[in-house]
Structure formats: C-alpha cells, structure tokens
Structures
1.
Amino acid sequence: MEQFKIRASGCGQIMTNAKKDGELLSQTTKTYVDAWLKEKIYGYRKQFSSKQTDKGLAYEDEAIDKAIEWLNLPFVLKNEQKFENDFITGEPDLILEDCIIDIKNSWDCFTFPLFETELPNDDYYWQMQCYMELTGKRKAKVVYILLTTPETYQNMEMVYDHVPTEQRIKVFEVDYDPEAVEKIKKRVEEIRIYIETKLQTINK
Amino acid sequence: MAKLPAIKNIYGDIELAIKQDGLMAVLNQPPANEWVKEHPYVKNYKYLPIERVEWLLKSIFKTGYKIEVIKTALMLNAVEVTVRVHYRDIITGEWMFHDGVGAQEIQTQKDSGHLKLDMSNINRGAITMALPIAKTLAVKDACDHFGNIFGANLNRKDYIEYGVDLTLQPMDEKHPNWEKVKAAIKSKSYAVEDIEAKYTLTDQAKETLKKLYDGTI
C-alpha cells in the first residue's frame, strides 16, 4: 500500500487535537484516515457533493476571472499541476510570482465572510501551509468571492451583480509558518503508525 | 427575501376576475414585469423563477395540485426528467394534468470534452447537480401549458433560457482582463493555445495575441 500523505485540502482534519487525555489522534483525524484507508483497500475515492461544492466547481473559472479583475492581479490561469513531497500532496488554485492564491466561492451572502477580520476557517490555514510548503512560496491568500447563485429546484436564484465589488470579494492573508509545517509532518508520521496498527487488525 | 405579492394586488381580485372573465383569460395574462428575471449569464433570456411558478400554482389552485415525477433517465449526454403536474380544475373540480419534460447536460471534467460513452470523464456531483435542474425545467415546461401567466411566451425554448451557461465571457478587448492577457502573452508567461483552451477567442483577438507572442507588434 502506498505511504500516507496528507492532501492539502484535508489537512485541517488531521490537525485537530484529541480531546481525551492519552489519545494521540483525534476522532476527526481517525475518521479521515479510516476513509483514506478504505479508499486504498477498495479502490474507490470517497464521494462528497453538496450544492456548495457544486457551485464552487461550476463557477471555478468565473471566480478566477473575477479575482484577477477585482484584485488587479496579473493574468494567471488555474494551476493544473499537482505538487507532492514526502508528506503532503496538493494543487493550489493560482500560483503567482510571490504568493499562492486559493479561491473560495461562497454559496450565498450568508456564508460570505463580509464582517470577518481573520480567516474564518482554520482548515484553510492548514491548507495554505501545505501549499506554501509544496510550492516554496512564503505568502498565501485565501480569496472569498460572491458570485450569483443560479436557481435550482431547491433554491431561488440569488443575484449579486448589483452589489459593489468590495462587498463581493474578501482576502485573508496567511504567512508561512515553519513550525506549523513541522507539526503537519509530525502528524503525518503519527498517522502512518496508526495505519500500521489498523492494518494489522484486518490482516489477522 | 421580499414577501411575494398576493395575485389580487396585481390583477385585482383573482376569484372575481376568474368569475367575470373566466380562468383562461386570467391564465393568459402576461406575467407581471417584476416577476420576470433575466438570466445572469445568458443575455436577453427571460424566465420566471421556479418559486414564482410554484407560488402561482398555490395561488390559483390552492392545495389542488401535485407534482409527480413520471420518469428520470439518461439521454445522450444529459439527464432528462418527465413530470406530470396534476391540478384540480377550479371550476369543474375535476382532476386534470399537464406533462412537462426537462433536460440538463451532464457536466464533464475540465478540458475533457463531451461526455464519454463509458462516462469516465463525468464530473463529481454532476448528476446531483443536473437532475434537480432538469426537474425544475420539466415543472416549468408543464406549467407553460396553463398559459401566458406562467411565462409560456417569454421564450419559446424554456430549457435554453434556464440552462446555466458556464462559458466564460469571450476574451477580447471587451473583457476586463484583456490587457492583462496581452501582457501575459507578450512576456510569454502563456501561449495563445493556453488562453484558447480556457476562453473563446475571436479570430481578431487570436491574431492580435499571436502577433504579440511572436513579437511582431
């Protein structure tokens, strides 16, 4: 079986701390790793889909286009290269000369972090650390974008075209933290030991 | 969300209107302007949102309607849904129905072209996304038969009006990022083919970018 490496997008799930004393890995981490193991054993990738992720996928290019325009970025196409080292794999959205950018397409105005002054989701902090470690960049930006939500059977259309641009885009900067990256590597090693133990239980 | 207006506020007393002019006359009123929406990505396409269609059903037929999904299936590279909108005729009390069909193309993985026969390039969640859209279209298609008030004459091909257009705005001098693309081509950060893979390029725009890349302008 291939060695466990953490996907950048899943890093937040393995970096939660165990609530019980003496436990090395949290339940969230174990659940994530168990799913990874099943993927390897059975050969299927766990499928997850929601209206939020669907919108994110469907409007990915549109969001990048808007980010370039609204943030006055140099022109850049979505990165298609998968990066990998001994511990981490990942594919950041945009790679600029001095930073990497990850675009988060908000489902609607209520999930758009208009008033937040700090990155609202810790998972994205860990994700950015992974991307920076993989690409060698030392700055990352998490960019939230609010695009019109198309009508589906379950929801009405939500149009935001009339809203000023500054209320439809929000940038959170994340600096590279070598200590955080070391913690990720250490956790990956702990998970590899957990995986060995887990495999022994099914190979008895 | 703004509270939906009662139909009598727009067309007077609906029951009186039906009594005086008949149900057909009311159903064939054009939809109020404020109900009609323009598609955000498809220019000049107008439609009635599904919640407005459902609101009309509730306002006119009260509890006397139900939506039945007759069939869901794959058709070429799309999912199709057939629905039957049952309604109780408010004059005769008789249950009747209108059928409607809707289809939505299945989204494929980026740059993988049309849906392959073995569906190996299907996008994650594509069916989950396409099926409810197809159902929405089918309900609207069925309701078109009630008359103009349901938006029957807004567009002759309702499914086109509704379909989500995921094509990016063509990359030419009208695109807000045109100058940046030119700069990227000039500095050879990207080749013209890279831009063409993502955007629609007019012949003129392509020519300009090629010349920039070659350094002839």
Note: The longest helix of chain B spans residues 126-144.
2.
Amino acid sequence: MPPTSPNSPAPLYLALLFPFLPSDRCSRSTAPPEPPFALVGRSGSAQRLAAVCPRARALGLLPGLPLADARAQEPRLAVVAHDPVADAALLRALARLCEDATPTVAIERPDALLLEIGGSSHLFGGPQALADRLRQRMEAHGMHLREALGATPDAALAFARYPSADGMIGHLPVAALSLGEDAERGLRRAGLALVRDVARQPRAAIAARFGMGAALALDRLDGSAPRPLSPRREHAPLRFEERLAEPVATADGVRAIMARLIERACRRLARRGLGGRRFDMSLFRTDGQTHGLAMESGRPTRDPAAIARLFAERIEALADPLDPGFGYDRILLSIGRTDALAAHQPALEAAGDRVDDRDGDRVGDRDGDRRNDALAALIDRLSIRFGPARLLRLLPAQSHVPERAERRVEAQSAERRSADALSWPQPLNADPPARPIFLFDPPEPVEVLAEVPDGPPFRFRWRSIQHRVACAEGPERIAPEWWRLKDGALHGGRTRDYWRVEDMEGRRFWLFRHGLCDEPQGAPRAGGMRPPGWFLHGLFA
Amino acid sequence: MNGAQAPRFAELVAASAFSFLEGASQPSDMIAAALAHGLDGLGLADRNSVAGVVRAHVALRRARERAGADIPFRFLPGARLVFADGAPPIVAYAETRAGWGRLTRLLTTGNRRAEKGQCRLALEDLLALHEELLLIALPSETLPCEHGAALAMLRDAAPGRLWLAATMQRSGTDRRRLAERAALASRLGLGLLATNDCLFATPGDRPLQDVLRCIRLKTSVAAAGRQLAANAERHIRPAAEMARLFRDQPHALAASLDILERAAFRLDELRHEYPDEPVPEGWTAQAWLEHLSWEAARRRCPDGVPERLKAKLDEELGLIGRMGYANYFLTVHDIVAFAQGRGILCQGRGSAANSAVCFLLGITSVDPMRHDLLFSRFISEERAEPPDIDVDFEHERREEVMQYIYARYGRERAGIAAAHIHYRPRSAVREAGKALGLSDDMTARIAGTVWGSHSRILEDERVTDAGMTLENPEVARLKGVADRLLGLPRHLSQHVGGYVLTKGRLDEIVPIHNAAMPDRTFIEWDKDDIGALGLMKVDILALGMLSCIARAFELLRQNGLGDYGLDSIPWEDAGVYDMLCRGDSIGVFQVESRAQINMLPRLRPREFYDLAIQVAIVRPGPIEGEMVHPYLRRRQGIERVEFPSPAPPHDPDELKTLLGRTCGVPLFQEQAMKLAIVAAAFTPGEANRLRRSMATFRHAGGMHDFEKKLVEGMVARGYARDFAIRCYRQIEGFGSYGFPESHAIAFARLVYISSWLKCRHPAAFACAILNSQPMGFYAPAQLVRDAQEHGVTVRPADVSASPWDNSLEPESSGSGNLALRLGFRQIGGFRRAWADAIVAARPEGAFSGLEDIARRARLPPRALRLLADADAFGSLALPRRTAHWEARRTPPGELPLFAAAQAIELADEPAADLPPMQAAQEMAADYQALRLSLKAHPLHFLRETLRRDGISSAADVAQAPSGRRMRMAGVVLVRQRPGKGNAMFITLEDETGITNILLWARDFERQRRQVTAARLMVAEGVVQKSREGIIHLMTRRVEDRSFLLASLSDEGARAAGRGHPRAMRIIPQSRDFR
C-alpha cells in the first residue's frame, strides 16, 4: 500500500460491475432482439452461450451452455452473435462517462470498471452519493449495474461480483481470489470455500500448493499488498487549434493558418501511421458566428499540399464565400475519420537499385499506382465539387441478369472489386463483345417477327421504326433467379433469350424474347398463357 | 418406332448426384428421363467414380420388368476422368470386360494415392491403362494449349477410340463454338460427338443443382451469381431437339450411336468368384465343404448322424452346389476359424446362417435341428440371390479379424462395401439453409425440431414447430429445397463391416478407396449395389455384448467357477426365466430398454423361443402392424388362437404352418413376406422386390404400388381388410428395421447367455459389463446399484487393492462369494499406465502414504489428485480431503516432480486445519470422480426437503394403489421418445428404486425446457398399474429441481448463486434416445 500522509484522504475504491454488459449492449441497439435472447460464440466445433439477457438467465440459461441444449430447453430463444470487441468498446465508453467523478478510472475487462474515489467523493456528497449518482447514470444508459465500495481495488471488485459476502472480505468465496479454475477447485475440494477459510491456513502451505500468486491475491484483497491500477488511456482526439490574439480577416491569412494546422495534423498522422479520411475545419468569428468546412477523401491521406488544395477547392465551391467579417479568432481542425496508411517512399524506390525488377508485375504496379494517384486526386476534386453522390463508378455484381450484373457505388468509396476476382465478363477468343455498353432501363418493348419456337428475329419495330435483321447471333439464355420469387416457389418467372442482331443499316441491337414457348407464362391472374414478348435491352456501339 | 426419318441419339455425357455437389439427379431419374425421351441409350459418367452406375443399371432392369418386354435401350456404365494435371476431362466407357477392369484400376490408382474422398489422376495414368476404353474428350472452350497437346497424345495412343465432345447450351455463341469445335476435330482427325453434358434429368432440377453448387462453393445462391449456370439447359434432351440444335453437324449425333454400339461392356458380365485360399490343394471347393460338413456332423453325433440331419445336409449341400456358393461358405468358415483360434468370441446370423452347414462349421451356434426354424430354405433358388451371413465379433477385437482378412487376401482382393450417405432431414435443412443465405439461427431452429432421421420429406409440422410459417417465402423455399435434397447421396463412407472378397482382382470389378480410418479400404458400391450384381459379402460386425460375455467367461475361469463357451452354458435354466419374468434385466443384451422391461412381465418368457419373440416383438414392424396386443392376448389365453383364413375356394389353413409358432400373429419379417406370397398371391419375385424396396425405400420409393397389390390381393382371397392393412403396415415398419427370425434367434442366444450370467454370477457379470463400457442403456451407477441389489458386495477403488479393470475378490466372510472391486478405469481421466505402475509397485510392500506411492509408482501430481478425489487412499486411512491437500502440495508445472525429489523428502509441515467433509459432500465428490457412489444415493440427502414438499419416494409409488395422484422426485436416468414420438418415457431413480414416467407429447411440448434440462426431476401424475404389475406414473406436470443437486456438493453450494452449468454436473447426464 502506498504510504499516505495523514492529510490525504484514505484511498477508497468503487467497483462498477455490469453483469449483463453484452446483452445490455444489444438491448440498446436500434433493433434489439426479443427477450429471451443469448449471445453465442463458437468454442471449438460447438456453439455455446457466451452471455445471456436477464430473462434468459431467469429461465436458467447460463453462459457456457451449448446452444443446442439451450434451444432444447427454450425453443423461442433468440440468438445474437457474441462480439467481444463491441463489448470492450462499450466498456470504454462507459469509462468515459465516469471521468467527471475521478481521474482514475480503470477498465477491468471484460465487464467492470474500477474507480479510485478517495480524493473526489467529497465533491459529490460522499462515496455512497457518488455511487448512487453513477448508478442512475448507468441505468439511464440502459445498463444493469452492481456496484460496491472497498478499501482495496480487489475488494471493491470482489464485493461487486459476490454480493452475498455482504462487504466482509472473509465471507467472499475463494473464486474472488481469481486464481483460475484449477486452484479454485483445489481449494473447494479441500473444503476451503470462503476466503476466511483460506486465510486461516499458513501462507506457506497455500503457496506450496497454489503458488505465490495465491498468497499475493490474499494480501491484495485486504490491502497488505499493493495493487496498482492502470487507468484508462486513450489517444487524444486528433484536434488542432490556433487561437489568435489578433483576429485574421484576410483570405490569405486564413489560408496560411489553415496550412499550418494541416502541417501539424499531417505530422501527427505520420507519427501514428494513419491517413485522414475526413477533415473538418471550424472557423470561429469574433462575433460568435461559426463557419464549418468539411472535406472527405476517397483514400487515406496525409499529404499537406493535397489537403490544402482540397480545402481551397471547397472554399471556392461555396455558394456563399467565406466572410471573415471582423476576423476569425480561432480556427480548429479535427480529423473525424482515419485509416491506416503505411509510410512509403515512392521516389526512392523508383530510383533504387531495381533489385526487384525481376518481378515485372511490381514495376507495373508501381506505374499503376502513380496513375491511380492521379485518378484518385481527380476523383476527390470532382467529388468535392459536385458532391460524392454525384460521381459514381460501376462495379461488377454477381448475377447473370444484365441489369443486376453491375452496381453503382460512389466513386470515392473505398470499396474495391471483391477479392474473389469477380471481373466483368470477357468475350471468348476474338468474339465481339457479348454485352452492349448501353442498357435501357426498363427494356423497351418491340414488335418482332421471329422464327418459332426459339429462333432468331427477322424484323422488329422499335419506336415506330421498322428494322430488318441482316444477321443475328444467339440465343444467350438467361433463366430467372428462382431465389427471388416472391411466393417462395422454386420455379416460375420467365426465361430470356438474348440475341445480338445487326440491321440492314449496320446498327447493332440487343434484343430478348421474354418467356419460352413451352414455359408457363406468368401468374394465372395475368391472363394465363401469354405468348412470349420481345424487348430491346441495349445498343452496341 | 417412327421410321427411319426420326432422329436417333444417345446421351453419353451425363453426371448424376454421385458427382457429389455437382450432379442433381439420382441415376434412376437420369435413366427415366432418357427412356421418356425415347433416346437410344444413356452413358452415366460421374466425376472419377462409378458409384452410381449400379443404381442406373437396376433402374433400367426395373423399367424392363415393368414394361414386361425388352426395351431397345442401352445403358453404358462409365466415368468422367477429371485430371489433376490440367488435362481435359475425359469420359471413358469400356468396350470389353477387360476395359472395365482397366477403368476401375485406373480409378483405384487415383483414389489410393489421395485422401479419402479425393482422386488424383494424371494423364499418364490413362495413357498406361487406356486399352479397350472409348474416350470422349471435353476440352474447355478456350482450349488451353495443354489441352491441345493432351488431345494429340491421346489420339496417337488410342487411334479411333477418341471423340471430341461438342455442346449447344444456348450460351449466346453456340454456333460459333460448334464450328470451331468441328474444325478442331477435323484438324486432329477425331470424331465430333454431340452431347448436352448433362448435370440433371429435367429443367426443373436446376434449383437443386444451384443449391448443390453453392454447398460446394460454401456460398449462397444470391452471392454465387455467375458461378451458377445461367440457365437450365444441362438436362437430358429429346433426340429431335438435339438434331435441331446440331443441324450444322448432323454426324455428331450419329457418333453417339457408334459409341453406343462399340462400348459393349455390360455390368451383367461382372462375375464374382470367391477366393480359393481356404480350399486345400487337390480339392474342389464343393467337395471340401461337403467333407468338412460331414466330418463335423460325425464328430457331433458319434453314435451316427440322425436321418433328419442327413436329409437336411444333403438338401443344403445340393443347393449350395447348384448355386456355386461353396467358396462363400468356406471363406466365412475360414474367417470364423481364425477368430476362434485366437479365442475371439463370434456368432453368425442372417438368412444363410440358419443352415445346418453353418451350424456344423461353427459359424453359428443356433442348431437348426433343435430350434426347428420356421423356414428350412436358407437360400432361395428362384430368387437367385447371393447368401448373406453376418458374423458378430467381440467389438474390441474385431480389428484383428479385419486385418487378418486384408493380410490373407490382399488389398486388391478384399474391400469393405461402401455406405452411401444420403441427405437426412437435419443435414438437408442445414445445408439448404446455408445455400439460401438464411441465418444459421433460423435453420438450426427447424433442424432442431426434426426427431428421427429417416423421413423422406420434411413434414410441415417440423417447420411450424419451430415457430415459423410456410407462408413466409424464405421458409417455403427452404422446405422446397430441403425436400428435394433429402435422399440425394452426399458422400461415400464405409459400411460397418461388409467385406467383399474375390478370387481375382477386386479392383478390376470396382474402384477401391482409402477409408478415413487408417488401414481400411472400401469399394464404391453399397450393399444394395453388391446384391443387385450378385456379388457376395460377409459382414464382419462388432458387438459389445460379445466382449462383455468373453470377459465374464474369463472371470469365471480365473475364479474357478467353470469353463464356459457360447455353446456350453446350461440351457433352459428356470431361474433365468424367473428373473426375466420379473422384468429384472438391467444389463442384459437387447431386453434392457424400458420398453423391453415392460414387455417381459407381459410376455413371461419360459423357453428359448420365447426370447426370440421377446427380442422381435418390440420393433417398429409388429408395433406399427398392431400385432403386439393380439399376440399377448392370445399367449395369455385371453383370446382364442385362430388363424386368419381366406374365403372358401382357398385352403382355410393356408397360414397355419406359417403362423403356428406365433399364435396366429405374424411377428417376424419372413412371416410377413411369406404372407404376401401365400395370402396375396405375390410371386416370389414380387415378394423379393417388396422386401428390397422395404429395405431401401428411403431412396427408391415405389412402395405404394405394393400397398394396393397386397391389400387388394388379400381382400380378394377373402381376408379381412383390417388384417390386410395391418399386414401392410407391419411390412412398412420392417422397412426401417427388418427383423427376421434368424436374427431374433441369434440375438436370443445372447439374451439367454447374458441373463444366465446375471442370474447365476451377478458379480462376474457386473464386473464384465463395467469393464466393457460404454455399452448398453445404463450408466455405471445403475449397473453397480443393480449388482448391489443382487447381493454383490461392491468395494471402492483403492490404491492398495484395485487394478486398472474392475475385478473380483473373495468375500472376507469366507462365504465363497465374490465381491466386486472397482478398478481405476472408473476414475474419470485416469490413465492405464498409472494404474499399471501402481500395481507393479505393490509387491515391494504396503504403501506408507501418498508420497510413498508417488515415488514408487512415479505418479505425476495429476494422477495423485485424481486418486485423492476418487477417495482411493482409504486403505492408508487418508480421507479424501487430506489426501487432496497432500496431493496438491507440489505445485504443478515443476517437473520432474517426485522423480527429482526421490531422495529429498518434502519438509514437514504443520497439519492442515481442513473442515471435515459432510456425508452429502462425500457422495457428491464420489459422483464427480467416479460417476457413482457406494456411500449413498444423492436423493438420500434431499429426502427431508422433499418430504416437506409432500414428495413421495419410488417405493411409495410402487406401494400406492392404481389411480392415486402422487408426486415423485428422482435423478433422470433415461429419456426416450420412441417411434412416432407421441409419448416420452422417462426413468427416474431415487434411493428406494426406480419409477417410470410417461408423458404425452402435448404435455412435453408445454414443458420442453423442464423435461429436457432436468437432472433432478419432480413428476406429478396418476399411478397406473397394469395387470402384470407394471407401474407407470402418468405424468402431466414436471418440475426441474436440479438446483437441489448443486446444493449437495461443497462446490455447488457456493456456486449455485452465480452458477456456471459445470457446477450442476454432479450427476452424470442421462442417456437420451430418440
């Protein structure tokens, strides 16, 4: 125990235990599962309950139970995936909520916080009042809570975990020593169920059987051995601020300060191996008005010149230019989103001793990188100018149905082609392109004269103009995606037969027959058997 | 036929579901589709496998039988060779029997060098074994250069025997591709073959194929997209449509007919010859078999072979000679003789095992002369079916027999039959759900409600049970897909022990695979396929009870209580039957289940044949045919024994001989079959098909034609319709578990032997069965308790007395009785080596203490702790707690423990101040270490609490009059939900005995959690006593009081509050049967 001077208050610890942390987290979400529910994790080949909600607990479903057994007992049990990372994040967030009570908040994973409140509880009307206040706060956040005070960190934590001990160290079960399952079992088998039973034994006998750790744990519980807390530490947020004694009112002055902030930010980002994805510049005017500029980048970046240029673009694009009025006295840059960005030295590599030139691909990649850099810069600029939702690119999608074979994403989106090498379909050998570059949405109905049952079209009328087919190739038969049928049937929908045709004038079209002659056509309510229809779906260049 | 103009075509590139996770139709469906389209033939070529060809062969045979005429259609068995070295896939068919042998050897080569389920082939393998094979190449559309090179190589190696396949699957550029292919063919000088490279029978099978591919790719249909086929074109097409598609290359259709004609090999040509090894030089197999049989007969009957036996032997040997089965019997005899020479107990059963020949050769110990079996016919001549003998061996020593077979006949001549594993409801739902992209949660919920695993479709109730509605499209789709997956083959596995042995090379009949178990190889065909081709197999099975009996005999020998074998125990001992009539049969073979125990006092077996009936009657066949109660009523004399009889023109006594020994009620499978022949005028061939479709109706279907024929046939002859319908239902019941008389008699012998051991030598029997665990229905705790109730003294495991196994010791009283000493094997987690070390250290003198044992037997701390927890230091006056404290003394991890400390004594230490252990805690600790306690029953300590709640004991229930409402509490021993699952049987045990609970399904569903989770259950219901004195508590309400058990142990008492389930595990989990 650290020596304390007579004046300084005796250390006092408050433990906040969240017995249902994972389930409370789910209940707080926007779509909470219906109780009773459990969080399930995989251990080995079996799925086991990792945590349960209070209802499930009351039904006797305990963590550790195999999911199959739990279901046999309670078929209505809803199941959510166990997410320890999210739980840890929630615990950190809860720790932040306590920081006004004391500077020393330690996280005791997985489900508890430990606060040193000896020095601060008087500010809140005493330890109990502080505990009540925190309880109310936690409950307001939808958390179940068991709290306990103790003279040592371990005691506070143990009292929270084992309320049956009633605040008496001796009455705690041996599990409170946290010695691990094997040692716990050993102590209990020896008939030593409570801490006081263990404490009665000679320390040497305990140490000989359960190691020095057991003896130490006993001492820590009653405070005869110190136990340091490791208070929560978080990276400070990426915020950079300039307070100006003399307000700046000129555009150049503002730009210079912004450039300084960006420089500082980029240095910090480089130290952390990060690149910014979202930058917010707040400009505070002396008269209390605030201007905000937000900028997003498609790729993580920490290039000061590029960021400054993007902000400049942003300012230019403003309908209502920045009006410094009597000047800004404070400018704040915060980086809202970051991604990892490793350091690299393009110039040095390019000029380097070309050791890995044997690997031609990598050189190509590097060239490609450079091109991509330029393209990315252009995409960023255009997106900032017109808004990210206006600049799109197409990605291939997993479907044979032409209108579903691509999807649009924001050009800036980090989404790449998935790693499973899904690429655009390539025509075989030296074939002409299989798909047109222009698709009608929806396909346009056409009147067609064609060979039955599934031959090529001879003539078709599109937008009142008659086209005579000079040559046709096909059909490319695409069956409907049965798994999308609304009625859950395995069959239904209409098959399409696509034909590539060229008319007498050399124009190329993509036509399809909708429905086969021998397939049931649509639902009965739509008039039973309908003859196949024809549509024009696209134009080749 | 439509005349010369009609286009003709044979589809020669077709895969079935035996191309696992690719083909979507059964081989029989492919044949049916090809026949329906009027094709000239079909070639089935699955990926590196011929596993499905027999199914197709049989389907065609059946179609011919149905049509009653020869259908001009050819089926070609073949395989699609998929190479690991980048060569194009090649479909191969055999021109001759020798060609087939090469194909199967080629596949064997690929299988044997890969892991189970894989086949690694290279083009050179084919180049080495291509002769007399016709080859169809399927190079990819882009024709990579290695494909071109491979084609040229094959063409040069197999001139005139290689074709190039072309497809027209409406991919948009079909004609362009066809022209390219034709150009390539003429450049290489190959024939062009039209095919549709079929993956399924009809376009409607596309969804299933998509799902299978998703299962293979481990993705969902929505995510798989272009990895799935764009359309449903890869089905079997009519010739006219093929002709239309291939109008640019008409000769490509004609090529299919060329190949059809040239690939002349038919599966019927496969001839099975049993090995010659057992036949000595200079003898024919038949002569040697006759010699052995007569020798044995003369040995058995030194005073002259009785006429009856002579006649029987003559008849049997004559039949064996005519059918050419002598080698088969000699091979089985050889295997059995090997086992007997090694002292491995074994017993044969099965139709052929019913014979005097098998009895004389020692294959079975059922004497057909003594038991006067119902059917003298052990092989049916008209059925031309191979004989079938199953031999059970001690389960722990079967591997010796199996390795003997491999060693004697060689890997290329001996193989285990395959088991074709099919999708069952649970796996179908799970995999379909994954492929449809549903959450694990949802599919697990539906799969979880499926009881039993043999239904052909997923019942709607299963879905609604899971709280889901079929109106939800996702759920409806899941059910639709799962229904179609059901019954589809999923993978090959090995049969439990059916060996196929051949004189020539087995791998020239069928490919051989590596099994998952080391040192095992199996063939691709399952038992139905083997039967359909007339190949013979002998089943080498493992039976736990034989191990147990062998152990018991050994114990009797060691203790001077007699030298017995399966044949030499005293038969028809009245005391044994008295015991069984009381329902006292825990541990006895086959009749120890709850249903059997309930049946015993009603059936009251008094002679050996009664045991055969007892074994056979509690089975789905008699139960579903509602034959049980009529039989019991007649046997008890409540109802007159009369024989169902037909209307006048027919012989009114036609069933008398058939049903004479079973009081006019059909109970055995043969009786049901013979009924069909006699009373419904089935031909033996039809009856045979009926029996076969019963055994395989899971994946063959077609039972309903039989239902009509059987019921109407019997009604037409004047039998009561009700009786006819029951007969049919019985046959249907046999389908899921056929039980012929010959099996019943073989099992009945083991019932008698185990009952005799239990009755006359309870200590040896209990000891043997404990040493044979796990087996049977009951946990060691019940077996020990049962032994105690039969007067056996049971002593605890102790460092000074126990060996590894449980053992027998003389009783100290000098009564000459034997006491059962628990062995170290009862201690959970204890190792045999530790036990042996302790035994080896004993002769040096008595152990002085824990440290002494540790040093002398060099035990690690874990062993010491386990011994302490099992309270095994009783002889050293070291109580459990003190021993545990001692054993903990050297902290784990400091190696080498006592070995290093051999010289150094641990320092003295003041005696620990440990609280004494309560009796309840001792009991709980016993259960934790040994899964049983000799000190007390857990309920003993809870009796006060329970009595305060007005809860009665099992003894109270047994005394109460029928109709009394009572509450009873007990540890759950067994939960069973038999048959259709409308009732649940639960056995509860307390310190006074056992109570049987019956719970109807609706009450079960209401309290599912309590019923399935409880280890300590309180049941409330009405006592029901039958005339025979069987007591049930007809329960409506149960409570789960497992927490009371937790309060008994010192661990549980504290842990109950925050309870990890582990803390509750004081009582081992019940054994649950579905």
Note: The first strand of chain B starts at residue 10 and ends at 14.
